[in-house]
Amino acid sequence: MTIPGLVIGLVAFAVLDRAGLWAHRRFRLPWRRDDGGRPISAVAVGELDAFFQGTHRHQQDQRNSSLMMRDDEDDSAPPCRKIDLDGGTAIVHRPPSS
User: Fold this and answer.
1) What's the helix, strand, coil split of the chain in %, to 5?
2) Residue 22 belongs to what H/E stretch?
3) pLDDT tens digits, residue range 58-78?
4) CA–CA dist 69, 55 (Å, integer)
């Protein structure tokens, strides 16, 4: 498949994906999942963009790794766990319920 053919196929797929999303919102199609995350067509176009521009691959990898990492910066509380690797013990305190 040529590159222009791939781009035309991705555009056609994006149109079908958006039409399916519209139909799901209107008629609640049982085989479509609820709206969550990025549409499949956006992922496909992002992968094509990353193929042609290497810096976009790095941005996508950074976004994926930051989504998997835990963010506790806003916690501002003392640590609720103490792990002693040498002794093989772990102490976990329940956070106070509000």
Assistant:
1) 55, 10, 40
2) helix 3-27
3) 888 888 888 787 665 555 555
4) 21
